[in-house]
Amino acid sequence: MAEPVSLSRRMVRAARAVMKDQLPAEVIAKVKIGLLDFLSCAFEARDLPWGCQAIRMASAASGTATVIGTPVHSSPGEAAFANATLGHGLVREDMHTGAVSHLGVVIFPTLLALAQQQKASGRDFILGAVCGYEIGAAVGRAIMDQEMVRRFRPTGITGPLAGAIAGSRLLGLDEDGTISALGFAANATGGLNEWPYCGGDEMFFHPGFAARSAVTAVELAMVGARASESALDGRAGLFAGLGKTDCISRVAPFSGGPFEILSVYYKPAPACNYAQTACQAALDLATQDGFRSSDIESIVVEASAAAVGYPGCDYAGPFERILQAKMSIQYCVAATLARGAIEESNYHLLDDPEIVRLAGITKVEADAAFTAAYPGAQGSEVIVNFGERVARSRMDDLIPATPEQIRERFRSAAGANWHGIETMVEELEEQEDMSVLSGGLAA
User: Fold this and answer.
1) Strand stretches in 324-421, DSSP E
2) How far apart are CA 264 and CA 145, in angstroms?
């Protein structure tokens, strides 16, 4: 009897079987708008503390890989680390809800860095991105239950795998080489969810670690290093290490349904995924005639159990670090109600008396209907008590940032060079050498 085919080989064969002419136009368009969304965040996060720290780290290494929006050129791994950190620096990145992962902030930095080391076309870039999303999402859907996400950062586990497949496809590694890249990436997964409890900065750097590991995994495979084919599903593989061997059979990329990248949405608010809908419901209330936040006596926010239970989301303060505010549903709602806007500046007002007051009188509760609908929909209701009256706004799902809004954000963040970059992205499948785009992202 023939030996069973490993999970790694099955996934790699499925990824290598996908051809550019099999991709629907909407999938290609999603890669382009996802790349613009990532770039907009990276450009905008250059001056934030964690962005500056990542850039400083990259500047200490030598190489030709571009650090976005800077004059720094570094090694592929360090450039990928910096660019992934920048892309995650606003907490306004892409979101695959079923995998609880931000895959683009790992995939795109990996592809951009590797494309400056070996000639690759825009078609290769698109295929790499689609395959990366497919593999990362399939693994995340299988294992990321509420208990897992309380302990582990999902992107730290799914990201290296997604990046390794993407990079391998970009550079045309053969089947065994891609399996090795995937195996090395499996050995480099990680990321703990302890940071929300004390306001640590780890979260910003998780995609950086993942992208650096993905680049290293691909580079190792390219020079002939071989990883265990059973690094995912073996007796001491990734799934066993996570206590998830029962989930191996659920991993089903390229299963005939819509491509996983089509399940990705782009955040309207620069904050945690689980605060998005509540922010939008709060904005609906704050923009109604006669609204005054100073009249509010108490607030209730209803959301899914996943939102209430995610580390850092049900937190009313005190707020000492920006990341605590961006994770807290209470703060996100309070700032939106106090300022009548959803914008980055909301999260630089940690001592604002009205925001602090409102966050302190906000209670977050799990709603059965929202819980049942998740992850297919992310509903939320904000109920504001004014004493003599109650106002409420209920949304069954969030409203993602539109392509037009993403382009506007990109143009604002990219500065004078926006038109040339956007044109290359819009004509991505026609690019014969992606190092031109990667190099063009420098300051």
Assistant:
1) 362-366, 380-385, 390-395
2) 18
Q: What is the DSSP letter of 96?
A: B
- Any idea what DSSP says for residue 317? -
Rounded-to-integer distance, Cα 198 and Cα 131, Å: 36
Q: Do the Cβ atoms of 6 and 232 come closer than 8 Å?
A: yes
Residues of the chain below pLDDT 70 = 1-2
Cβ atoms of residues 138 and 98 within 8 Å: no
Tokens at residue 146, please? 């509420």
Which helix (DSSP H) or strand (DSSP E) does residue 156 occupy?
helix 154-171
Adjacency order of strands within the sheet including 362-366: 362-366, 298-303, 380-385, 390-395
Is the distance from CB of 79 to CB of 67 less than 8 angstroms? yes
- Structure-token pair, residue 416: 């004078």
Q: Which residue type is seen at 11?
A: M
The answer to whether 254 and 14 have CB atoms below 8 angstroms apart is: yes
Q: Are 177 and 168 in contact (CB under 8 A)?
A: yes
Residues in the chain, total? 443
